[in-house]
Amino acid sequence: MNFRHIEIFHAVYVHGSVSSAATALNVSQPSVSKVLRHAEQTLGLELFQRTRGRLVPTQDAHALFAEVAEVHDKVRSLRQTSRNLRDGRGAVLRVSALPSLGLDLIPQAVASYLRQHSEVLFDLQTLHHDEILRKLYERETDVAISFHLPPGAPVTHRVIGEGELVVLYREDDLPEAPPRLSLDSLDGQRFISPIQAGPLGWLLSGEMERLGVTLQETVSARTYYVAAGLVKAGVGMAIVDNFTAEAARERGLSYRPLQPAIAYDINAVFLQSRPPSQAMSDFLDRLAAIIDAL
Q: In this structure, are residues 255 and 168 in contact, taking their beta carbons and an 8 Å threshold?
């Protein structure tokens, strides 16, 4: 498929008809139909079936769309960057962060940075720790904000702050909680357990094994912000990072750090061959200051 095939296929798939796709692309309906037929002939596949005046994607079209959508988005991003450069607009900072950092921390840093650098554009996305290398290698992001450093990879990093694990709970469940909570003091409490994968899960599992502590797990959740939502709903307590806890805190909900503390670094990770630009370095400085203030 050439890019014209991709563009037409994407528009027809998303809009559901030749006429709507033509309107979206500002071209004629016959030209859309012609390119779509040529794409099907080139591939040797039927991509759409006509049903009651609409084009219904075939199973082959569904399988193809995931790849096409990624190419389409990258080309659209390239066009936007080209327009920005042509129009003299500022740098584009592509930043990825773990979901727990994207709830509140990254938005605060972006808002603070834009107050003095309104010409800069941001391309923000969330990622999980096992996606860092792929996002960097494929140039989907310039910097990944993470608790984890991919081992044995050609990346470098800058430590921009520190966080720690905390117990998030409803105040009715621990009405007289001390300033710090030990894991063994939580015996008998119902816990929402994040799936113990990833760097923070490994830290917590190691400490629990060292202390010989087993918590009463009621529900497992794959993300810390889902775990926080379950705490709000009264399902139990959860051990999460302090940034998720701070973003989730509301009336009747509190958190306490652990004793002894389980701390971790927050890293800005980037390819050795693509160090941060000056604009990105300035943003990381702002982000580090906000982390320090928290």
A: yes
8 Å CB contact between 59 and 21: no
Nearest to 283 by CA among 100, 53, 93: 93
In the three-class reduction of DSSP (H, G, I as helix; E, B as strand; rest coil), residue 10 is classed as: helix
Residue 239: C-alpha distances to residues 2, 73, 244, 262, 285 (Å): 50, 37, 10, 11, 28
Q: What's the token pair of residue 129?
A: 């720790």
- Structural domain for 280, as ranges: 92-160+268-293
State the pTM of this model. Answer: 0.67
Both 155 and 176 in a single domain?
A: no
Q: Which two tokens stand for residue 77?
A: 């991003």
Q: Which residues pair with 237 in a beta bridge?
A: 191
Name the region of 172 (left: φ>0; alpha: ψ -120 to 50; beta: rest): alpha
Q: How, if at all, do strands 155-170 and 92-97 pair?
A: unpaired
Helix, strand, or coil here: 251? Answer: coil
Q: pLDDT means per 10 residues in the chain (294 residues)?
A: 88 88 90 91 89 83 86 76 59 88 90 91 87 85 89 88 94 91 88 72 86 85 85 92 89 93 94 89 95 87
DSSP string, 60-97: HHHHHHHHHHHHHHHHHHHHHHHHHHHTT---EEEEEE
Say whether 242 sits in a helix, a strand or coil: helix
Are 176 and 249 in the same domain? yes
Distance CA 112, CA 141 (A): 21
